[in-house]
Design a protein that fits this description.
With about 260 residues, the chain is of the alpha/beta class. It has 2 domains: about 5-60, Winged helix-like DNA-binding domain superfamily/Winged helix DNA-binding domain (Arc Repressor Mutant, subunit A), CATH 1.10.10; about 70-255, Rossmann fold (3-Layer(aba) Sandwich). Helix content is about 35%, strand content about 20%. It has helices at about 5-15, 20-30, 35-45, 70-75, 80-90, 105-115, 130-135, 190-205, 240-250, and strands spanning about 20, 50, 55-60, 100, 120-125, 140-145, 170-175, 180, 185-190, 205-210, 220-225, 230-235, 255. The strands form 3 sheets. The chain has a 7-stranded parallel beta sheet with strand order 6-5-4-7-10-12-13, sandwiched between helices. Strands 1-3-2 form a 3-stranded antiparallel beta sheet. Helix 2 crosses helix 3 (about 35-45), helix 5 crosses helix 6 (about 105-115) and helix 6 (about 105-115) runs parallel beside helix 7. The model has no long low-confidence stretch (mean pLDDT about 90).
């Protein structure tokens, strides 16, 4: 079992039980207590858990636990900023292109703009709500990337449907993330969706990240795109100038919506 999957399972367990001992988690995951302590130290360094004597507890104040924050709530968080970002992103798309939109709330806002435009597009997505939105435009060919649908999720996960990515020439992937940090790039909480996002990003000629200002400097468990893999970041006017300058120093085009 890879470390990212172990850490996801630790968080899943703590979400259900709130606290656990090192011995308890080591037995569940069938790893040594040394390995388990290393995982807990990592999760603590990311602000996801708090170490206790002999174990750990969940930090419930974190705003980026998807099971604690439903999609409908996340959709309304910084919604004006996401709408502005979505409008700019939609204007980057030219008729005749093949693009990917992930299942994020920001890409859903982009889809709501795209569906009003007269463009002939092929659009792949793992987002159920995004696909439902896009299907209203008769000029769009909408392809839903298959995968596993988990309780409480609006996005398909896993690699079951990634074969379609090898059959098409994708011009641009538009994606959001739980956060962006300079050493890890785009990070997300769900390691299963991260695997799909990696495949989607690898299939596209260009990667555009849609990140409202709250995402910059935030980190989550698993990385799916390094800074050098990102061509453009679209953010909002709330982004700190120093963050924008540093992103540009990394060679990333930054557009402020």
């Amino acid at each position: 079992m890879f470390s990212e999957e172990r850490r996801k399972r630790i968080i899943d367990y703590l979400m259900k039980h709130n606290r656990a001992t090192v011995k308890e988690l080591a037995e569940i995951l069938n790893v040594s207590t040394v390995t388990l302590r290393s995982d807990l130290n990592y999760l603590e360094s990311e602000g996801l858990v708090q170490r206790t004597h002999g174990g750990a507890t969940l930090i419930e104040s974190r705003p980026d636990f998807p099971s604690m924050t439903s999609f409908s709530v996340r959709e309304k968080t910084n919604q004006a900023e996401k709408q502005a970002i979505g409008r700019v992103a939609a204007d980057m798309v030219n008729t005749g292109q093949c693009i990917i939109l992930d299942a994020s709330s920001t890409c859903l806002e982009m889809a709501r703009v795209l569906v009003t435009q007269q463009k002939r597009l092929t659009i792949l997505t793992n987002g159920i709500m995004t696909a439902m939105e896009l299907r209203e435009n008769p000029q769009f060919t909408v392809i839903l990337i298959g995968g596993i649908l988990r309780m409480g999720s609006v996005g398909l996960e896993g690699n079951l449907g990634t074969h379609i990515l090898n059959e098409l020439n994708v011009d641009i992937m538009f994606t959001s993330a739980r956060g962006f940090v300079y050493h890890d790039g785009l990070t997300d909480f769900n390691v299963y969706e991260v695997e799909l996002k990696k495949a989607m990003a690898a299939s596209a000629q260009k990667l555009v990240a849609l990140l409202d200002h709250s995402k910059l400097g935030r980190i989550s468990i698993a990385s799916f795109a390094a800074p050098e893999d990102i061509d453009t970041i679209i953010t909002d006017s709330g982004a700190a100038e120093e963050d924008i300058l540093k992103l540009r120093e990394l060679g990333i085009e930054v557009i402020v919506a």
